[in-house]
Design brief:
Keywords: mRNA processing, Nucleus, RNA-binding. The protein is α/β, with parallel strands linked by helices and about 750 residues long. Helix content is about 30%, strand content about 20%. α4 runs antiparallel to α8. It is globular, with a radius of gyration of 35 Å.
């Protein structure tokens, strides 16, 4: 029986909702992604709430809310307490994304689903891994290895590989095979024939133009608006795809020496770019090489100005400008307010670089044709004054008194409990009940009269016969030098505001933007005032695909190349999911699944795998031969059992049967050419073949009937007359392999 694998979607199948899936590998439960939408709809998390306490580990693939937005809430209220794994950029940029969402929501509503402390607490549990780093799970998951690989969608975005007993489970959603300005393409194609592949159908029905054509159309639309004295608003995410847009604009402005101002406006814009500057090793090869040669950091921005407050934008002189503002959904944040101000001007342009989430204002505006008018809610936080302020202060005082009373009661109970445990049994004030039974009856009435006089805040033992005062023995430890002290009691600790706002482990070195800090620390009593408006949509609306995902044609090609044994499709519209499912059944593999929410599917491998122990008697007679980085050997053995019942390979009790020669290994024709040249053979490439001497030809061909690219069965054909030269070259060829 192979490794047991079950997949249970918790959110994000047959629709475009956030992603969250439970993947069980031999009983070890992985929660792969923990997303939420921009509405923060708690009903979406009901399936997660039913399994959260059983999760053993959490794997995060990307830094946006669709992949990790529910993590703070799940850890605070749903009982999720498992360790979390992600890459360094997903950890840091995901934290900033959650900060930005919280601050944006807090300014327009009484947002109480989670706090900044909850965000910090959730992200403290994250273990950061580098690409291709194997992490061995211990304890319940002994034998399971996880490793992140390049996804190509967002900075630090991950394709997760989970390995157990030689079988791979690949989780690859939102991947991008295209190489972009700041990211390399995915390495998904390097995996061949995994046992299970979990991927999405989000883009299965979409096809994309070339990158050059798309970028040119993007810049042309912006320049046309600016030259017509209009403003351009790009609703963007906090720290994801916006990085690619910033580089496009920065490079174009630099090349053409343009003077139109560009602004990147989020609550954490400065922190975002500061962190991104330190992630060059996670970016494309071109950015890394440029930094190595010229020490020029691609995100040392000269034309894009970073803003953290809308008032800073309002202080900019009138004139055409480009503003990249969060949130991409237009549900909250600076983009929402700017949209309301600019939407009624025909000269302006709202340029969407990604599809809006379902049910959001952005998605509504991307309809064809777009609406002529939309209803919006304008909300802002204002200080309390007059009677409202007085009522608020009175309520706060009442709450403080209740908390103080509750704290005093708790302290009283603790002191009573400590006294019961610390009072020695031989205390003279504690009398033996057997000896005092008659006397207690005699003086019971007299003692009851005075019992409450001396015991306020103190409960004497039940055997006491008279009022008592509490006594606490505060003993100290002593050594040869005197009383033992704790040095920490005498250390003056400086309160650092920046450390208060960052996780305690200090890994997020650096500061939040000053505006965000002041907003967090603002304790002025306030309330949210909302106004319903209907605005006329007169500006231009354009959607261009800068999502950074492979299109439908590329997805189908990649899946055919990877050729998984079993395929699970998630996250995509019902139409896209069914379309990709039918295609894969015909061209990829016969086992394709598209489960519903909370439907558990068993995708355990059909292969039979057994664990066997190699006995010492067998290994003492095995001859190893080095092949590259490995040592290999042919083994003839029979299966037996050890004393503890484990299967073991033992030496044959009879002579080993003969077997055909098996060539193990692979060679590169270019390397073999150099080897032959070192042996004095005249050799050259001609027409895709290697000509050796005058008459002998070597050609490497693959079996076209096999899927899997580099893992396909390959043959080396040796052609030529049977001469001494032919046999000599054949001998050289065989020497490159291990032939047991």
């Amino acid at each position: 029986m192979g490794t047991s694998v079950q997949v249970k979607p918790l959110c994000g199948v047959y629709n475009e909702n956030p992603l969250a899936y439970l993947v069980s590998v031999d009983g070890f439960n992985f929660l792969v992604d923990c997303g939420w939408n921009d509405h923060f709809d708690a009903s979406l998390l009901e399936p997660l709430s039913r399994v959260a306490p059983t999760v053993d580990a959490v794997l995060l693939s990307h830094s946006d809310t669709l992949h990790l937005g529910a993590l703070p809430y799940a850890m605070k209220k749903l009982g999720l307490s498992a360790p979390v794994f992600a890459t360094e950029p997903v950890y840091r940029l995901g934290l900033l994304t959650m900060y930005d969402h919280y601050l944006s929501r807090k300014q327009v509503s009484e947002f109480d689903l989670f706090t900044l402390d909850d965000i910090d607490s959730a992200f403290q549990n994250i273990t950061r891994l580098t690409y291709s780093q194997n992490y061995h799970i211990s304890g319940k998951g002994e034998g399971i290895v996880i490793a992140p690989h390049v996804a190509g969608h967002l900075l630090g975005g991950t394709v997760w590989k989970i390995t157990k007993d030689g079988e791979d489970v690949i989780y690859a959603v939102d991947f991008n095979h295209r190489k972009e300005r700041h990211l390399n393409g995915t390495v998904l194609e390097s995996f061949v024939r995994p046992a299970v592949l979990i991927t999405d159908a989000y883009n299965a029905l979409n096809n994309q133009p070339s990158r050059r054509q798309r970028d040119q159309e993007f810049l042309d639309a912006i320049m046309k608006t600016l030259r017509a004295d209009g403003n351009v608003l790009l609703p963007v995410d906090t720290a994801g795809r916006v990085l690619e847009l910033i580089l496009i604009l920065e490079q174009f402005w630099e090349q053409h020496k343009l003077a139109y101002p560009i602004f990147f406006l989020t609550y954490v814009s400065s922190s975002t770019i500061d962190y991104v500057k330190s992630f060059l090793e996670w970016m494309s090869d071109s950015i890394a090489k440029s930094f190595e040669h010229t020490r020029d950091n691609a995100f040392l921005l000269r034309h894009v100005k970073l803003l953290i407050n809308k008032s800073d934008l309002e202080s900019v002189p009138d004139g055409p400008k480009v503003v990249l503002a969060s949130m991409g959904s237009l549900e909250a944040g600076f983009s929402h307010d700017i949209f309301v101000e600019w939407v009624s001007d025909t000269k302006n342009l709202i340029l969407f670089s990604e599809r809006g989430q379902f049910g959001t204002l952005a998605r509504m505006l991307q309809a064809d044709p777009p609406p002529k008018a939309v209803k919006v809610t304008m909300s802002k936080r204002v200080p309390l004054v007059g009677e409202e302020l007085a009522a608020y202060e009175e309520e706060q005082n009442r709450i403080k008194k209740e908390e103080a009373l509750k704290a005093s009661l708790i302290k009283e109970e603790e002191s009573k409990a400590s006294l019961r445990t610390e009072l020695p049994v031989n205390d003279q004030m504690v009398l033996d009940a057997n000896n005092t039974h008659s006397s207690s009856n005699a003086i019971g009435q007299r003692s009851e009269a005075f019992r409450d006089v001396l015991i306020d805040g103190f409960l004497p033992p039940s055997t006491s016969v008279a009022p008592m005062f509490p006594f606490y023995d505060c003993s100290s430890e002593w050594d040869d030098f005197g009383e033992v002290i704790n040095p920490d009691d005498y250390v003056t600790k400086d309160v650092n505001i920046d450390q208060m706002l960052m996780p305690v482990d200090g890994e997020l070195a650096g500061k939040l933007d000053e505006g965000s800090v002041s907003l967090i620390l603002d304790t002025t009593p306030s309330k949210v005032v909302s106004t319903e408006l209907t605005v006329q949509v007169k500006c231009s609306l354009i959607y261009m695909d800068f999502e950074g995902r492979s299109d439908g044609r590329s997805i189908k090609s990649i899946l055919a190349h990877v050729a998984p044994l079993k395929l699970v499709l998630v996250h995509g519209s019902a139409e896209a999911t069914e379309h990709l499912k039918q295609h894969c059944l015909q061209h990829v593999c016969p086992h394709v699944y598209a489960p519903q929410i909370e439907e558990t599917i068993d995708v355990t491998s059909d292969l039979c795998a057994y664990k066997v122990q190699l006995s010492e008697k067998l290994m003492s007679n095995v001859l190893f031969k080095k092949l590259g980085e490995y040592e290999i050997a042919w083994v003839d053995a029979e299966v037996g059992k050890t004393q503890n019942g484990m299967l073991s390979l033992l030496p044959l009790s009879s002579p080993a049967p003969p077997h055909k020669t098996v060539l193990v290994g692979d060679i590169k024709m270019a390397d073999f050419k150099q080897f032959l040249a070192s042996k004095g053979v005249q050799v050259e490439f001609a027409g895709g073949a290697l000509r050796c001497g005058e008459y002998v030809t070597l050609r490497k061909v693959g079996d076209a009937s096999q899927k899997g690219g580099s893992a396909a069965i390959q043959q080396i054909i040796l052609e030529g007359p049977l001469t001494e030269e032919y046999y000599k070259i054949r001998e050289y060829l065989y020497s490159q392999f291990y032939a047991p």
